[in-house]
What does this fold into?
Amino acid sequence: MRAVAVVYTAAVLALAGLPPFGTALGKGAVEEAAGGAGTVVFLVVSALTGAAALRVAARVFRGIGPRPERAGPAETAGGHEEPETRGRLSRTPLTMVAVPAVLLAASLCVGLVPALAEGPAGPSAARPRTGRPLPS
It folds into this structure.
């Protein structure tokens, strides 16, 4: 599951709002608008989000960390549910890795190519809200 691990880890970094992903641009704009205390809140939340998701990656893909304790009996056994696949899968289907990979690549492109960030929504996003409809 190496490809899944790479895509998941890249998604964690994007989720935390780290450059060079496009999510960093939005996070930076909101931090700038929020000011001093808002910037601290965003920094702490980003660090905690990234740490929690990276901990999951370390546990799931590397086996690092303590094993979770066995929970009690499951609330449902799933006996009445239809299976999603015909049998046990030996690998993750390509569509389940390709779609997030393409979306992450697009976020990376927005972060690396500034002109993409200033696309069709750029002027509208920068315009202050006045309560009036935009001219057509």
Remarks:
- Residues 1-66+95-112 form one domain.
- The first helix runs from residue 2 to 15.
- The helical segments are 2-15, 22-34, 36-62, 94-112, 114-117, 122-126.
- The CA atoms of residues 22 and 106 lie 8 Å apart.
